[in-house]
Fold:
Amino acid sequence: MTSGENQTFQEVRTVERSNFAAAGQISSYYKNVLKKLGVHSGVVRRVAIASYEAEINLAIHSWGGSMALTIYPDRIHLLIQDVGPGIADVDRAMQEGYSTASEEVRMLGFGAGMGLPNMRRCSDAFEISSAVGAGTTVNMDFNLLQEQPQEQ
Structure:
């Protein structure tokens, strides 16, 4: 993203560690905002899925973090940042079905190991960086000028 781009909307929300009662509220809010702005339903669906997966991952795996949705004339940008513990093996974490979720989290119906793969699948551009002990950052872009995501 360049600093010269004109954003039309930005919203930053905080996700608390293990707050499963609130998990899903931010992604639902983002979905409603996009619908009200008249964003194509296919894009709304992809952003909703990716932001929900991100929100759940923050609640399950992080020590807390934030989600920032920014809407530009040509795309939607979703920035996910947490404060730790980080991902030791990002390549492995990107594999469908791989999860480090606790048994307690799995009993709640979460932790199937599809969060990161679904985020990548739903977005048109996906980038993740992580450092053990320092946290994880995920950047996703969703093109507003096309309906379907590009193949990754």
